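Thread title: Can someone regenerate the structure for this chain?

I was given the following input by a collaborator and told the matching structure tokens would be attached. They weren't. Posting the sequence so someone can regenerate them.
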Amino acid sequence: MNPEPMRRAIALSETARGTTSPNPPVGAVILDARGEFAGEGVTQPPGGPHAEVMALRQAGEKALGGTAYVTLEPCVHHGRTPPCAQALLDAGVSAVYYAVPDPNPVAAGGAKTLEAAGVETHEGLLREDVERGPLRAWLHYARTGRPHVTWKYASTLDGRVAAADGTSRWISSPESRAEVHGIRATLDAIVVGRGTVLADDPALTARAADGSLLPRQPLRVVVGTGEIPAGARVLDGSAETVHVRSHDPGEVLALLTGRGAVDVLLEGGPRLAGAFAAAKRIDRILAYLAPALLGSGPVALGDAGVATITGMHRWAVEGVTMSGSDVRVSATPVH
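Best answer:
Regenerated them for you:
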């Protein structure tokens, strides 16, 4: 078993993030019968071909007797595009490796279809890499019916997100800020509270190091019942902005689900983050901890509905790495 083609498929899958919702950002690689590279592809925007079809088009006749490596089980249903399992059969591949079974009951079953036709199938190659990587958000969306929410924040070591006078630029390192702009470009939406708009006037755009806008921008979502000031940067036309006149996380996510959003970044502030935490609607925490102390000023999380220590929200740390001078922590809820 050679994991390298699947690693390439995962890397391809990452390049499609943010462009395929509500479909999954799948990557595929085809090797010919001799085990040589023949083709690769990623899922195109909704209505376009899936990753397997793109890879097969590049491979052409070289796919005959070859092997396909796909990050998600090939689909078996006919939606806006024909089923990928049938495309692989028509191309004459002899084996298919896929990382993750499709949790969508409408699309699942491709592996059985392939096996029934005599194609050797293998499930689970680099599964954890895919589940924690490019398909994390989509798998959550497929299993729960709601967008995956990552709460991102930057704070000092004592948990402050701003000084006592409200200033907050900048707590995190230049490397962390650049990384977050890259993450924004792969998302469907960024959510902030109206208080953050009033306090910080953020643009909530994805920008390059020179300050120019990246080609793809997420939907900007402002939560709160009051008006957004006419001159606020979230209304500058750089990206679409939606104002949700509610403080209910359920209503916010229902609106985003209706718009086909799969991967959502919650950026602030403490009150809104607390509401999402209390509602158990945070699916991942991405924290950037700066080696600094403030001693006073607002903290990262507001009231999260915890009255006693036994009600504490428990999280499992899945990664601790450096981002410039900051410590980057990724965590998921303990169920």
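Residues 4-15 form the longest helix (12 residues).
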